[in-house]
Amino acid sequence: MNVLSDNLKRCILFRNMKCEDLSNFLNMSNYTIEKYPKGNVVVIEGNKCEELGILLEGLLEAQALYPSGKLLTLARLKPVETFGEAILFSKMNEFPATIGAIKDSKIMFIKKNNLINCLTNCHKFMENFLELLSNKLLILNKKVKMLSLENIRKKIGNFLMEEYNKQGSNTIKVSLSRKEMAEHMGIQRPSLSRELIKMKKEGIIEFDKKVIIIKDMEALSKF
Known about the structure:
The protein has 223 residues and is of the alpha+beta class. Helices cover 43% and strands 24% of the residues. The protein has helices at 2-9, 19-28, 112-121, 123-148, 152-167, 178-185, 189-201, 217-221, and strands at 31-36, 41-43, 51-57, 60-65, 71-77, 82-83, 98-101, 105-111, 171-173, 205-208, 211-214. The N and C termini lie far apart (51 Å).
């Protein structure tokens, strides 16, 4: 229980909650903890959402498959991040994407009625829950903006500028593989590679494996 409590304290839902409130929540909640080996599916697109999930260990990826066959990566979830919080309270409570385990993962599932009890009885939990929903909305807006860009170069430029703002450096350390970058942008991997090579030849960027260096910030910001 102590290990679980320590994990949950790092989750935005339980941040700055009193130890007594967290303990009461765990004692009174009907939660389960499931393990998913690497490569296993956690939820399938279209399935009903009846619980909120909190990733305790591992790494998850949410992907949507379009009728054209294009695969789009919507999100990557790291430990103590959540999924299902918005869909759970929707009238159309179906998962819009398939979530799979990229690494061996352990997930805590919490029933809807337990969340309602905590939202009703704990003001801090309600604040945290609303902040979580707001953060997810902002992330979704960024994703929509990126997908609405009309060409590959603008998508790459948008990605690099976001990473520049987050990392505060012209030397961008990219955690994604080229395949994962392409899926994140909703484009084909060969198309991404070709455009990166063109941008390198034009002196806009330099890259090597997991590092991309912005050489011409003015040109990049005009995309």
